[in-house]
Amino acid sequence: RQVSSAAAGGAFPKRVKVVEVGPRDGLQNEKNIVPTPVKISLINMLSETGLQVIEATSFVSPKWVPQMADHTEVMQGINKVPGISYPVLTPNLKGFQSAVAAGAREVSIFGAASELFTKKNINCSIEESLERFDEVMTAAKAASIPVRGYVSCVLGCPYEGKISPAKVAEVSKKMFSMGCYEISLGDTIGIGTPGSMKEMLTAVMKEVPVGALAVHCHDTYGQALANILVALQMGVSVVDASVAGLGGCPYAQGASGNVATEDLVYMLNGLGIHTGVDLQKLMDTGTFICNALNRRTNSKVSQASCRL
Amino acid sequence: MGTVPSALKHCLSHQHLLKEQLWISDPAAPPPAALHSGQESQASGLPEYIKIVEVGPRDGLQNEKVIVPTDIKIELINQLSKTGLPAIEVTSFVSSKWVPQMADHKEVMRGIERHPGVQYPVLTPNLQGFNSAIAAGATEVSVFGAASESFTKMNINCSVEESMIKFEEVAKSARNMNIPVRGYVSCALGCPYEGNVAPAKVAEVAKRLYSMGCYEISLGDTIGVGTPGSMKGMLQAVMKEIPVSALAVHCHDTYGQALANILTAIQMGVAVVDSSVAGLGGCPYAKGATGNVATEDVIYMLSGLGIHTGVNLYAVMEAGNFICTALNKKTNSKVAQASFNTGAI
Fold first, then answer.
1. Does A286 touch chain B (CB under 8 A)?
2. Which residues belong to any copy of the Pyruvate carboxyltransferase domain (chain B) (predicted)?
3. Judging by beta carbons within 10 Å of its beta carbon (0-12, 13-18, 19+), is residue B105 exposed, middle or buried?
4. Residue A307 domain-assigned?
5. What does the pLDDT look like over B196-238, one tens digit per residue?
6. Which runs of E-coded beta strand occur in B236-288?
7. Chain centre to alpha carbon of residue B267
8. Are B101 and B57 in contact (CB under 8 A)?
9. Which of B232, B306, B334 sits opposite A222 (nearest CB)?
10. Hey, are the CB atoms on A1 and B303 less than 8 Å from each other?
11. Burial classification of residue A93, based on how many CB atoms lie within 10 Å of its CB (0-12 exposed, 13-18 middle, 19 or more buried)
């Protein structure tokens, strides 16, 4: 029986860029509203850990996402450490303009590989959603602001179920062609496994260079690190994660969501892959925000570090 | 993600999602895409079939604080026997002074249903335990070595070499009676006392157990500190001494690395994986931390890779639900957590 050289741990990337989404994706999916000063402290602490990218907030209407209502205050209140990027979500041109006015220098836009998910979320088709983003892209280009593109539901959709890798590749290609410098492929409901991750990436990598790809895995079914491992084996070198595994899953009450940054960094350290992140400082930050949220951490590394 | 949709209630039930994503079906009925998935796993260089060894009733319960009544243990094992699991570690013939949870080993061994095609190994630390086990009806036994001198000293108050001599006595008696013996090597990726453990030491201990007649060697990441990096290094060393078909991995999820470590192992050809229903069993070395990897989560991953296990995931989740209710605790299985909260199961 042959074991393919790639599978048996051939070349892993030497460095991985960890994109910290806790302050946005994490907090957005937490029940308790976090006061603005706590959000700012969280981001400032994260800025001390060696992380290079920290998603700070989301310029959406507070009617939809009350947790992110203080986006302007947060953006203006954080220490912007040189060398660290603080991207923010901008669902439309209005949000983009707000973001730039508040000092944002990088933005993200969210597409999806599922028509039904797009319809339920923002009441339009995928095509229409990308047309809306066109305005953002034009404005971003004019202002020399880099744009990161997210594709949701890449390994499954809570409404459609199975998602075809070809669809994911199609949406990724469109967003990349529009000018997104990086495409983050999101397993929104955490349902993917190394098998489906590999299949999806194979399709996407035909359309988008692997250097422009990131994976955003949810750990709802415990598969995140195994899925990330496969992505790394295929050459992906950008991974999204959330400190303390903040952020549950809106589709499965009580279930977990984002993969914990601590657990990811632990694995990457063990593989000898450079991240630049100080695990202890990261754990301390996780402890801080969990105390503030009055909740237990979702990071196993953090849990294990409490010894008798 | 974007906004939280108000149409949440229209999202698909967990059962629907699982059935679509993976061919989770009755072990009796072959999966609809069986041929395809076999080819898929083969094309990727992974084993077509993986044997899952269920250690919940022994390793799991042994590390749970609450003492479980005998009839509950028996019911758990009986439920597990109906899931398609090929091997279920039943109990441990150790002195009840050391391991109170396993004090009822004879009653459990005699009380369980024995399903054809299912193995029911038991732990036997020495010849006395072995004889007790045989008298109670055991037809397969396990012995536990370790790749760490300090761990062996702290656990059973002797050196690794002295422990091997004890196991040789068991192996000899077992051979005379045609009883298969499985060997465990603890601390394969790290020791709570010594820290790093040399892959060469793991290989040495594994080889010793294999040479004395153990048909299979289960390499245990006792404190779950391993990562795909250290798993690969350790397996490379061990595979120089023992054929990969005689190897199993027993990963703890204390640092969340278990599935990634298991994936690495199966990519290297390992085709036997130990796990514990509902992820039963905490870690005695890290208070409040988790221990064994959850069988449900392992099956979910293997199914998604097109690897056949013969195990019905839903049936395992039901057994997990049963024992967690009895223990009054939440499951450690993420698959079970996601399932019981979305829809009817």
1. no
2. 50-317
3. buried
4. no
5. 999 999 999 999 999 999 999 999 999 999 999 999 999 999 9
6. 247-251, 272-275
7. 18
8. no
9. B334
10. no
11. middle
d(CA A215, CA A241) in angstroms, rounded, equals 9
Q: So what's the ipTM on this one? A: 0.92
**Min CA distance, B110 vs chain A (Å)?**
36
* Prediction pTM value: 0.92
Question: Which pLDDT does position B17 carry in this prediction?
Answer: 65
Contact across the interface for B257 and A64, Cβ inside 8 Å: no
Q: Which of A4, A161, A194 sits opposite B305 (nearest CB)?
A: A194
Identify whether B283 is a catalytic site residue.
yes
* Under 8 Å between Cβ of A96 and A143: no
Q: Smallest Cβ distance to A229: which of B44, B228, B305? A: B228
CATH of the domain at A39: 3.20.20.70
CA distance A53 to chain B (A): 17
Structural domain contains residue A9: no
Return the axis-axis angle of helices A279-293 and A261-270, rounded to nearest 10°. 160
Q: How many structural domains compose chain B?
A: 1
Domain that holds residue B280: 51-339
pLDDT band at B287 (very low <50, low <70, confident <90, very high): confident
Question: What pLDDT was estimated at residue B31?
Answer: 41
* pLDDT tens per residue, range B263-281: 999 999 999 999 999 999 9
**Per-residue pLDDT tens over the stretch B93-136:** 998 888 899 999 999 999 999 999 999 999 999 999 999 999 99
Type of residue found at A82: P
Question: Which residue, B136, B113, B101, is CA-closest to B122?
Answer: B136
Confirm whether B99 is domain-assigned.
yes
CATH code: domain of residue B77: 3.20.20.70
Within a domain: residue A308? no
Handedness of CA A170, A184, A29, B282 (dihedral sign): positive
Contacts of B190 (CB under 8 A, 6+ apart): B196, B197, B221, B222, B223, B225, B226, B230
What's residue A121's pLDDT? 86
What distance in Å separates the CA atoms of residue A43 and residue A47, rounded to the nearest whole number? Answer: 6
Beta carbons of A53 and A240 less than 8 angstroms apart: no
The tokens of A77 are what? 């209140």
Q: Indicate the number of domains in chain A.
A: 1
Please, what is the Cα angle at A247 between A245 and A248, to 5 degrees? Answer: 105
Residue type, B230: S
- Reading the block at residue A94, the tokens are 């209005």
Three-state DSSP at A161 gives strand
User: What b-and-e string marks burial along A54-73, b requiring 16 or more CB atoms within 10 Å of the CB?
Assistant: bbbbbbbeeebbebbbbbbe
> Residue A115's Cα: distance from chain center in Å?
21
A221–B224 CB contact, under 8 Å: no
How close B287 gets to chain A, by Cα (Å)? 5
Q: How far apart are CA B227 and CA A268, in angstroms?
A: 8
Q: Which residues pair with A17 in a beta bridge?
A: A238
Per the domain annotation, does B31 fall within a domain? Answer: no
**What are the DSSP calls for B138-205, one per residue?**
---EEEEEES-HHHHHHHHSS-HHHHHHHHHHHHHHHHHTT--EEEEEE-TT-BTTTBS--HHHHHHH
- Model confidence at B40, pLDDT cuts 50, 70, 90, reads low
pLDDT band at A9 (very low <50, low <70, confident <90, very high): very low
Number of other residues whose CB lies within 10 A of the CB of residue B159: 12
pLDDT value of position B341? 58
For position B20, what pLDDT does the model report?
Answer: 62
Nearest CA in chain B to A109: B2
